[in-house]
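Here is one chain, start to finish.
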Amino acid sequence: MASMGISIEPNAKKKEEKQGDGVGAEARAPDQPNGGARSFLSRPLSTANTPRSRQSSPRNSFRSSSSYAPSNSFRFGVMERLGLVSGSKQRKRRVGKVWYRKRAKGVAVGAVGLLACFLVVNWWMLSRIQDSNRGFRYGFLRANSSTLSIREELIKLGKVKRPQKTIYAKLLAKAVHALAEGQNKPEPRELWVEPYLLASTWRPCADQRNWEPSGGDNGYIVVSANGGINQQRVAVCNAVAVTRLLNATLVVPKFLYSSVWRDPSQFGDIYQEEHFINYLKPDIRIVKELPQELQSLDLEAIGSVVTDAEIMKEAKPSFYLKHILPILRRNRVVHFVGYGNRLSSDPIPFQLQRLRCRCNFHALKFVPKIQEAGALLLKRMRQNGRNLGPLDHYLVGPFSETKMKRKKGRSTKGSRFLALHLRFEIDMVAHSLCEFGGGDEERRELESYREIHFPALMQLKKTAKLHSPATLRAEGLCPLMPEETVLMLAALGFNRKTHMFLAGAHIYGGKSRLAVLTSLYPNLVTKESLLFSSEIQPFMNFSSQLAALDFIVCTAADAFAMTDSGSQLSSLVSGYRVYYGGGKMPTIRPNKRRLADIFLKNNTIEWEIFEGRVRKAVRQTKRVRARPVGRSVYRYPRCKECMCSTEEE
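Its structure:
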């Protein structure tokens, strides 16, 4: 039996046949009695919709290094999955090698045969390179046999799509060879550490206050924040700063229901209300609801409703003092509807800017239900390691101790892992106006999505001349595809044994699009595959709460890689890692414009040259610098308002 081109040893195969499909003593969750002391291993990625009796235990998440096939087996297996070489030719080549070895007369003759084999494989690879996804689409589904095949699902929908062609087949083939040859080599040290010592000279200090509490005498501010959890988090902290600016009282924010995110969660379902109110008490007055006499008012009729469209993006404090404060004083209440990123980053008074940082990094703590599940995910990603991460306490609170409590006399070092935020959901793909290799069918599908969810963008397309998809890609304005992401990771030096956590919602194109990543990096898991059905069930149908789990794991990871620097989740995660990381939490921020230029040369570029250029492009984004003027303090907290530099002391 083989999965993803990875061979399984005979003993492991016999043991698997003996166990069957049932869930016995070996499949108990690690926190249950008699669960065993082995490191935690999760189910395959595709078991989310599989009956419990057919799911494998979360104990089988990561394959041990002893189960890896030899490099040639890995190379042939993955190339067959990717459609780079046919299965029949692969089998013929293997039989030929066995026949030749039996009759080899000497070492010299054997070396010549191996060289000839290598050249023939490369010839076949180049001749059959055009349809990569056709190979790995069904190979991935066979490896996860409990999943209903994509073809069966599409037949039910009456839509059998043609396999997509990848424009990176040659580079992917070179990546397969590079990973096969380097699977036992150590990874570059700079992948897991900050390359610049200057990063460790900054420390948090947004908790320091230098003003008197606000009385909130001018009236009440009601906020209905839009977007997903990350946009809402920014809106809450901006609202806190505006409340202080206007000497008002803030009502605990409300979250609008989004047709994209479809999550009815409110502030108290995600964040600890009491901690939020009490921690910010020295700054502003916060109440849970409006006074009774104001609740009966028709706020729209009296002119107290201010929509997002009525406030310019990045509005300066002077705008609020000139236009909002008079309404507040006249009616005693202002309701910001659809409030989001409506407060400028600069110029802002020093203490007001510090208040925004204090809200984001100190006042917003997840509810215990989310903290507990987050701690469980961290424990399993580290394979039951006993050592705490530097950010665990800030993210999961007391559960960092209860879920990872050390045993006396023992200290087990956990497995390090990379968290990857692959921002390739359909909303991002559709809004980018880029093309991703799916042809006319993809264009029709994305156009239909835009008509429903982005009507303003559709109107702009009709009235203005926009850049072509090719121009957008050359300018680095398109989200990285899974194919581009795996090429970047391989070029940076992450080997195929690397443990990876994939954050995000539903990847556009589904498992067939993701298969290129899981084929080359088999130790890739998600929150859905790490948690039992009973453990993740309380969060199902609540996308913001699921995103909070992604936030915890990505922030606490030994290394974090984003594929789109404009993503709110990636921005908030990277900022949190800077603020609390002490210069020990590396983040990979690809320069998509430079990568696009490198990818465009994929037909002729050699792997060593490609590797060097990618590493140089990523290394340049890791330079330590103070927050540029006008940039978000949530993403760039290295500024005197949020952090203190020991070099200035």
